[in-house]
Fold:
Amino acid sequence: MQINNNYANLKDSYLFKTITQKVNAYKTANPDANIIRLGIGDVTRPLVPAVVTAMHVAVDEMGQKESFSGYDDGGVGYPFLREAIAGYYAGYGVAVDPEEIIVGDGSKSDISNILDLFSPDARVLIPDPVYPVYVDTNIMAGRKITFMNGTAQNGFLPLPDDLENAENLSEPGFTPDIIYICSPNNPTGAVYSREQLKKWVDFAKKSGAVLFFDAAYETFVQTPGLPRSIFEIEGARTCAIEFCSFSKLAGFTGVRCGYTVVPKELSFNGQALHAWWRRRQTTKFNGVSYITQRGAAAVFSPEGFSQIKENIGYYLENAKIISATLKELGIRFTGGENAPYIWLRCPGGMGSWEYFETLLEKANVVGTPGAGFGQNGEGYFRLTAFGERENIEEAMGRITNL
Ligand SMILES: Cc1ncc(COP(=O)(O)O)c(C=O)c1O
Structure:
């Protein structure tokens, strides 16, 4: 039997599975422990009322012959949602044609599935530390991955300039075909400036590479002038694909909806990737439910958006509380200002898993060991601001008293 042996090259234990196992073992041994989880990047605030109402209305519409909806436009998203998304972009000065937007069931799927458009021989450049999905999906396809170092020196924002220094690459002297960029970043919370992204755009154009820009956390950007979309950068329409999600924007982690923008100008070897992506989706996917898409469109109504902003504000306030505690304790960190993630240097020179065990056992607080995001994550730790305020305050009190 010819099976895909690339799967055998995946690391056998996914980060969060290991964490869960360790936490469960601790709970079995200490049944009374009140454990606070600041680890997994899942939201805790419920869907906002505007979304819930829109979804209720949509359910009723589906129950009536006159307003029933079947397949959407071949599985790429109903026009009402694609237009609403284009309007959202226009709201901050980015022109995107609704036809360039393809709606899917979340960024994880789109980021993975887009690889269908590229050869198994395509050379991939991925920052380290990184959202593990970029790595695993390329391993599954048997692609060769080169890592570029995100370190305290470059603020966890590697730049094309860093590629000239062989020490920053796991394989020096190669030319990438696909470059992954995540900003605001998971896990580090760092955000690229316009000037920095321009460097990546120029580099991609010069080297004939495509930029995969993961903007799953764009709504968290608060600092004026920091880019939320790669398409704010001149030249990006000929070299970049952008992935967005309603998961963190609007708490859709359990609802499932996202979208990907492939500009019509983006082509390689005379082939427009926009047409290929559309073809891929209409062949292998039949769209997101009407009810979900109505809920997603309601996010961009004035009422929906002000409710969403309140939730984002709540998480960012949590991030401020965490940041203030770390500052007081003299622990170095990045993120927390324009992202729901706080990436801290483990105190006392501890390793990532050592600090994980310390926090679990001495403070009953669960975070994510940085080592799980790549080699450069060793010695770092990720806390998320998605928890309940009360829990965040309690957890920070316990960490202070350690
Ligand atoms: C950087 C990044 N991209 C994409 C996703 C996937 O989001 P979803 O599949 O829920 O849209 C996540 C989820 O945590 C993420 O952290």
Observations:
- The mean pLDDT is 95.
- The chain has two domains: 5-46+303-400, 51-301.
- Residues 182 and 214 are 5 Å apart (CA to CA).
